[in-house]
Amino acid sequence: MRRKLVAGNWKMNGSLAVNSALLASVNAALPAKVDCDIAVCVPAPYLAQGQAALTSGPVVLGAQDVSAHEDGAYTGEVSAAMLLEFGCSFVIVGHSERRSYHAEDSAVVAQKTLRALQAGMTPIVCVGETLAQREAGNTEAVVAAQLDAVLAVIDAAQVEHLVVAYEPVWAIGTGKTATPAMAQDVHAQLRKMLTARNAEQGEKVRILYGGSMKPENAAELMAQPDIDGGLIGGAALKASDFLAIIAAAK
Ligand code: 13P
Fold this sequence. Notes:
Elements: E1 5-9, H1 16-29, E2 37-42, H2 47-53, E3 59-63, H3 80-85, E4 88-93, H4 96-101, H5 106-119, E5 122-127, H6 131-135, H7 139-153, E6 163-166, H8 180-197, H9 199-202, E7 206-210, H10 215-222, E8 229-232, H11 239-248
Parallel strand pairs: 1-2, 1-8, 2-3, 3-4, 4-5, 5-6, 6-7, 7-8
Helix pairs in contact: 1-11, 5-7, 7-8, 10-11
Bound molecules: 1,3-dihydroxyacetonephosphate (13P).
């Protein structure tokens, strides 16, 4: 049985005051022991704030991106070593917003995954198809190519250190959610690829669903055999919604 993971992706939202109120509400409502793992992936300037606010309680800190490079002349980038200094346990790599607005291809995403693993952080590797790709019947091929690029560069012994997130691009921020059956189909395919790379470890990898997950649909999605949690955008910005999703993760 895989322990579920609920990870908030704040994207480019927040302020010192707003974050402080949100984290205080979440912390205050959660008992010390919960039934799932919980992370919040905050914008880089707020890592220090997140680190200070999350010293006790079950919520751990994550980042939204990491450089593919170790250090050096890469203006604007943030290295894995830097994220580690601020106590990050998780880092999102290959989010569709990075792939589409910043032209990140799967080779870059694979390098970023390696950087995170080398630093001892857990990469949350995002895959997902656009609406046009789904309608053309290419979902399976698209997500397979995205995950394959990562599985090709890591050692088979590193498979268990991954988290994978299936985020259909057409469901992100749109209010459209994949049905539990649709999501499960893709998750099962991703599971097959992970176990093909490492039979034992592939069973341990958490595969999250992301894309308009909210309190109303979280329990049903997470009841699917290969949906091991959620990567939550909009609903992670509202304490009551985030807490309700956490409560649904058992
Ligand atoms: P929404 O939950 O806002 O659809 O965002 C999903 C997402 O992109 C999380 O990374």
